[in-house]
Design goal:
Elements (H helix, E strand, L loop, with lengths): L1 H5 L21 H9 L3 H8 L14 H8 L8
Length: 77
Amino acid sequence: MAYKLATILTDVELQFDIDKTVFHGFNEDLKKILIKYEMHSLLNRVFKQGVKKNSPIPPLSSKAKITADKQDQMGLF
């Protein structure tokens, strides 16, 4: 039974339309999620323009503020 479960079937018919795989860009819902969870670095890479200074960005969490304040201690690691 294990052999049958581990066998990869290669004769399966698939309905596949290559035209449906064309990438049209990321949508605004993803942008909102990245902003909500403070993933600014990923936001900059995905959307290329990043976050503008006047855009509504939620404030950093208290943990992020503490980390940002202690940049001088990074040399200890």
